[in-house]
Amino acid sequence: MTIKTIIFDLDDTLLWDKQSIKTAFEKTCTYAGEKYDIDPEKLEEAVRIEARKLYESYETYDHTVLIGINPFEGLWGTFDDPTDAFQKMKEIVITYRKEAWTNGLKVLGVDDSEFGAELGERFVEERKKSPFVYEDTYAVLDELKDQYQLVLLTNGAPSLQNLKLEITPEIRPYFDQVIISGDFGKGKPDAQLFEYMMDKAGITASEGIMVGDNLNTDIKGSASVGMKNVWINREGNVNETDVEPTYEITSLTELLELLKKI
User: Fold this and answer.
1) Which of 157, 209, 218, 259 is paired with 231 by a 20 to 30 Å CA distance?
2) Could you tell me if 109 and 164 lie in one domain?
């Protein structure tokens, strides 16, 4: 059956989220290095490790796994969303940011919780100022928008994912549907989320194709409902999972040629 709808993941598919986080770390850690004689790269490494430890220790961790929210999103999100689980995250994140940065400083021999709190809030602002979009994102969406129904299917907290779309305002208008896992209550790869998406888009699995960078969420989830998928593998990663994508590309630009052959 002819493909009618293309479903895109957001983070590290259309938005270069890894680069945004990396840039926010670099700017914040450089600022820290101006006050204390510490290596910015070592501080970043330490904060990343300490953040993961803290993140996994909170009662909200299981919910973040279910919805698909990583520790570094926790370092800059507000989680001002209506459910009880998100409200608990909202209560935790200020302390989380402070402790992650304070503990990272301690690893490098600096005991300054007040400065740790300052760095935590500085990171939030640096991330907001660092929205990166892949070079071919807009050109590809321009090419596809009049040929297909476009759906955005993203894991995460609605408040945070919507903020990402607000600071890259060009993206949302391309899409007929924007579906965020936190609004649904379950994230990719859960088949129920994909079934919900198909119902909202008015399509069957054979009428859609999923495009995403993550084998374990985008590709596994779409395969679970019998939908074709495209793994965008920009970094040349080796697939060491048991998840087999229908197609593999190295850039969004390649998607245009692929669609002509399907």
Assistant:
1) 157
2) no
Which domain-ending residue is among 83, 100, 128? 128
Are 221 and 209 found together in one domain?
yes
Per-residue three-class SS string for 43-92: HHHHHHHHHHHHHHHCCCHHHHHHHCCCHHHHCCCCCCCCCHHHHHHHHH
Q: Contact 77/180 with Cβ under 8 angstroms? A: no
On whether the pTM is more than 0.90, the answer is yes
For residues 256 and 137, membership in a common domain is answered with yes
pLDDT digit string (tens) for 86-133?
Answer: 999 999 999 999 999 999 999 999 999 999 999 999 999 999 999 999
104 residue type, one letter: G
